[in-house]
Backbone:
């Protein structure tokens, strides 16, 4: 039902007004006609005209009476005749003179003139008539003459009067005719209006019928929709009384519509334990018009079935205003299945995440565990290289060492990727010098480049930037990877590294300058279909590519990860035969050059208590020279090593009092060297090793200590600070044998496998080693070698590096037993000693 | 209206008794006769003549009518004997009265015209007797102003003046 619009009211009012005007007009005209007709009926024309014509008759009677009057001795009768005829004529004239019906007539000039003459006659004759009869008789002839003279005037009175009234009558008839015509016109208008009204009503009726049909159809549609809806649809009135309950609602609540309709909604669907809350909500709603659910869109809640089971629902409540008051539409869906599915999904996801984490953890553990024995392997290979070998053996050793290093790098890469993917890759932001870093890389790679007959150079393009706050290790790793690849794939060509700084543009709002380092080579180039793939993990392992290039495995995938972790990117522009250009873009934070700390206690003596033998391991010539000079001046005996390999070799050969070990070095870094020294059986395997590092992070330092280092000094270590450290570690205080067991692998293992499982493994390991040791050096050397080999692997897994080294040496000695039997016994002894120490450290 | 009418009806009844006793009496003097009534007066008992002088008419009834007429100028007061009282006195209840004037003008007046508040046989105009020149001595006057019914040509034609004879036609 539509509300009546104002314009409709106006239209209706206009129609009614028109109709009323027509009816009134008709009424007025009808009154007119009736009045006219009444006038007609009350008209006096006939009698008036009769009187007019009677004037002449009465006059003729008077004339007759006078003319028939006997001239001599007339009788009374005769005279009375004359008198009566005169009186009658007089009364007739008097009538015309005074009668109201003749008033209009008297305005006519011809009538009035004739009347004047008649009246003069009457006035003149009255004395004669009223006088003595003798006089009347005598004057009779004269009277007759005057009467005859007057006759035209009397005729004139009569005729003009009759003519006037005839005209008047005509006018009146015309008036009636006109009124009747008007009446007909108005009646016609009224009829037309009625006709229009009838048409309009007919149209309205048709429209109303059509609308009713439409409404019925719409209602039917809504009903069908409601009935076929999969959701329960419930209508209630303001008090919550159920008005409609569809088929889905019947199914959902287990209540027939007939039972539900008329009941209160809360009885039908609200669970027992929410009744109080519902009542409170309804009261709040009545008071404030606010409701927790109404008009809030889809809301989740619970409802109860007829059997009392409570189930989760999704519902929405809307209000509709109707003529019968507000009604509420509740659309409600049983989401039990969905909720269950969601729960299952969450559980599945959690499980998947847990699996993924376990996988990552396992990978990390395994990588670590692979790396440790690999280091042992490599260390021993190094040692082997220092022994007297045939040329073929030396070649085998070199090949093994190359393969071992490649394997180690892959393992390290896998570890880094695992960390990155687990989100554990942390950046160590420290001030670093861009130019120096690039120079280091060039220095590092120039040898290899030369070997390939390739020229390697670098330069700034445009403005240079020196100090930035960044993770030098990561940037260097990325660049080293790129440059290393370029060197590898370029033979007899040119590699140009250009660095430049551009103002930051990406992402918008980040105005940090962007460091571009482009590495352009003239190598063989990369086919387009390979360009995207080489940044993926393990996909660079194209066999031909790998064979020719030596294989980089995860290298570029990792470089990409590092670059992205630092907010940068690596791009590649290449075509086969045209060479390749890798470009690293990194947003950087320029910083002021760091000021150098001067840890120089003034009270320290310039000379040491006693001169010591110092192994100085440092790749940088300048740094090495400075340190050497410092130590030499303090009367220390300094032996120099320019990289890890050299350090390991020297440490194996001679016993030093202390080893100062640079951590970052080409070929073999300080950590690896330390591990090899500790794991080997060299002369200096248990002397203090002090790390010299730019890595100030505690985490890293802990890792150094785990490697077997005794102390960590943050570079630059200059002057007295250097001397103090040497003094401290050579004077006996603070000096100690390295911990035989690296705690980290064991902890990792416990985490990955569970403590019980690790204890099991440790128990078995202990039994194996016990057997090996108790069997003594006289057992079958082959058996000793195999068992030592197996146990060394296990020792590495548990972080017992010293034991691992000892067992490795034992294995080697066993295998060489034919050549050197004494060495086997010595190695066995060493292993026994190391086992007793490691046993305690492992808690066995 | 019921009350006065009933009163008048009662009065009419009393008059009827009194007039019946009068019916046989004739005017003492011929010259004073102003109205001669002929026709069957007493229930088809045959022809009869009744003569009225002013006194006798006046004795029947005296009714005052104030009205204008189309024959006069302005409003006038007429006194006369109501036609109702007149026909009652003559014991006439139906038929018509054929009225004649001195100039022999004649018109038929139905007895049904003779109602209370209806026409009178006027004998005084403005308190004075009417001469022949003033349409006397008797003039049948209807109360034209009181009812538009009385303002029609028909009624005007029945308004006979200089009336001197009435013939009763049943």
Residues:
């Amino acid at each position: 039902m539509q509300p009546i619009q104002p314009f409709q009211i106006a239209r209706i009012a206009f129609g009614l007004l028109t109709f009323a005007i027509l009816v009134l007009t008709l009424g007025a005209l009808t009154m007119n006609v009736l009045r006219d007709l009444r006038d007609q009926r009350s008209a006096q024309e006939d009698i008036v005209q009769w009187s007019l014509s009677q004037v002449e008759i009465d006059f003729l009677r008077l004339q007759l009476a006078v003319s028939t009057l006997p001239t001599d001795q007339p009788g009374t009768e005769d005279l009375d005749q004359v008198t009566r005829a005169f009186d009658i004529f007089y009364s007739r004239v008097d009538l015309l003179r005074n009668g109201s019906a003749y008033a209009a007539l008297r305005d006519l000039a011809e009538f009035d003139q004739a009347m004047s003459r008649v009246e003069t006659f009457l006035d003149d004759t009255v004395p004669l008539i009223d006088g003595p009869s003798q006089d009347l008789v005598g004057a009779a002839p004269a009277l007759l003459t005057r009467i005859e003279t007057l006759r035209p005037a009397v005729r004139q009175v009569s005729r003009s009067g009759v003519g006037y009234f005839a005209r008047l009558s005509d006018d009146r008839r015309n008036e009636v005719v006109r009124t009747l015509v008007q009446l007909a016109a108005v009646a016609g208008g009224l009829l037309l209006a009625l006709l229009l009204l009838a048409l309009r009503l007919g149209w309205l009726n048709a429209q109303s019928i059509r609308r009713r049909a439409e409404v019925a159809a719409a209602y039917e549609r809504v009903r069908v929709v409601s009935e076929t809806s999969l959701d329960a649809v419930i209508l209630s009135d303001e008090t919550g009384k159920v008005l409609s309950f569809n088929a889905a609602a019947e199914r959902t609540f287990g209540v027939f519509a007939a039972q539900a309709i008329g009941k209160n909604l809360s009885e039908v669907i609200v669970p027992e334990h929410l009744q109080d809350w519902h009542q409170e909500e309804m009261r709040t709603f009545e008071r404030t018009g606010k409701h927790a659910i109404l008009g809030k869109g889809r809301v989740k809640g619970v409802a109860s079935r007829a059997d009392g089971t409570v189930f989760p629902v999704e519902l929405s409540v809307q209000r509709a205003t109707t003529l019968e008051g507000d009604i509420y539409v509740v659309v409600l869906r049983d989401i039990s299945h969905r909720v269950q599915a969601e729960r299952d999904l969450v559980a599945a996801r959690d499980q998947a995440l847990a699996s993924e984490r376990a996988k990552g953890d396992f990978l990390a553990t395994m990588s670590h565990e692979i790396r440790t024995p690999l280091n042992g392997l490599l260390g021993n290979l190094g040692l082997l290289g220092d022994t007297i070998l045939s040329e073929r053996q030396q070649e085998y050793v070199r090949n093994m060492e190359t393969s071992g290093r490649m394997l180690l790098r892959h393992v390290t890469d896998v570890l880094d990727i695992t960390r990155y993917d687990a989100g554990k890759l942390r950046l160590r932001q420290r001030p670093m010098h861009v130019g120096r870093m690039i120079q280091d890389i060039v220095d590092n790679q120039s040898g290899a480049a030369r070997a390939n007959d390739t020229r390697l150079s670098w330069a700034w393009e445009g403005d240079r930037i020196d100090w930035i706050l960044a993770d030098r290790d990561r940037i260097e790793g990325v660049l080293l990877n790129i440059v290393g690849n370029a060197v590898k794939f370029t033979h007899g060509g040119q590699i140009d590294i250009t660095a430049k700084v551009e103002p930051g543009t990406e992402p918008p709002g980040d105005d940090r300058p962007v460091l571009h380092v482009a590495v352009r080579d003239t190598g063989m180039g990369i086919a387009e279909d390979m360009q995207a793939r080489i940044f993926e993990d393990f996909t660079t392992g194209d066999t031909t590519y790998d064979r020719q290039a030596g294989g980089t495995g995860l290298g570029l995938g990792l470089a990409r990860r590092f670059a992205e972790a630092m907010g940068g990117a690596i791009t590649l522009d290449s075509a086969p035969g045209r060479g390749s250009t890798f470009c690293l873009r990194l947003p950087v934070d320029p910083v002021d050059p760091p000021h150098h700390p001067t840890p120089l206690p003034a009270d320290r003596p310039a000379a040491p208590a006693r001169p010591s033998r110092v192994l100085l391991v440092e790749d940088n010539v300048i740094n090495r020279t400075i340190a050497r000079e410092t130590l030499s001046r303090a009367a220390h005996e300094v032996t120099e090593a320019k990289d890890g390999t050299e350090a390991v070799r020297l440490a194996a050969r001679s016993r030093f009092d202390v080893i100062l070990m640079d951590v970052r070095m080409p070929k073999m870094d300080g950590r690896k060297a330390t591990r090899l020294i500790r794991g080997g059986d060299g002369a200096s395997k248990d002397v203090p090793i002090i790390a010299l590092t730019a890595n100030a992070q505690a985490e890293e330092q802990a890792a150094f200590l785990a490697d077997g280092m005794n102390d960590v000094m943050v570079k630059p270590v200059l002057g007295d600070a250097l001397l103090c450290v040497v003094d401290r570690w050579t004077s006996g205080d603070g000096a100690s044998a390295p911990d035989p067991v690296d705690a980290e692998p064991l902890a990792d293992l416990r985490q990955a496998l569970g403590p019980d499982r690790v204890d099991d493994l440790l128990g078995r390991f202990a039994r194996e080693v016990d057997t090996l040791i108790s069997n003594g050096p006289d057992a079958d050397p082959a058996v000793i070698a195999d068992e030592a080999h197996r146990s060394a692997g296990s020792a590495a897994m548990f972080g017992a590096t010293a034991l691992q080294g000892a067992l490795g040496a034992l294995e080697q000695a066993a295998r060489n037993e034919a050549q050197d039997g004494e060495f086997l016994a010595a190695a066995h002894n060493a292993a026994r000693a190391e086992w007793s120490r490691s046993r305690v450290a492992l808690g066995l | 209206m019921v009350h006065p009418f009933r009163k008048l009806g009662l009065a009419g009844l009393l008059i009827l008794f009194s007039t019946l006793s009068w019916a046989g009496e004739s005017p003492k003097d011929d010259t004073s006769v102003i109205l001669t009534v002929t026709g069957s007066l007493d229930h088809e008992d045959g022809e009869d003549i009744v003569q009225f002088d002013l006194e006798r008419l006046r004795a029947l009834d005296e009714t005052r009518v104030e009205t204008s007429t189309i024959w006069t100028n302005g409003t006038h007061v007429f006194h006369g004997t109501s036609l109702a009282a007149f026909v009652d006195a003559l014991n006439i209840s139906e038929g018509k009265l054929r009225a004649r004037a001195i100039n022999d003008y004649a018109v038929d007046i139905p007895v049904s015209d003779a109602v209370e508040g209806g026409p009178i046989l006027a004998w005084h105009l403005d308190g004075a007797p009417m001469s022949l020149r003033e349409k006397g001595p008797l003039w049948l006057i209807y109360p034209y102003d009181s009812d538009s019914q009385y303002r029609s040509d028909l009624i005007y034609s029945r308004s006979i003046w200089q009336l001197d004879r009435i013939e009763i036609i049943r």
User: Anything to note?
Assistant: Residues 1-24 of chain B have pLDDT under 50 and may be disordered. Chain B is about 25% helix and 35% strand.
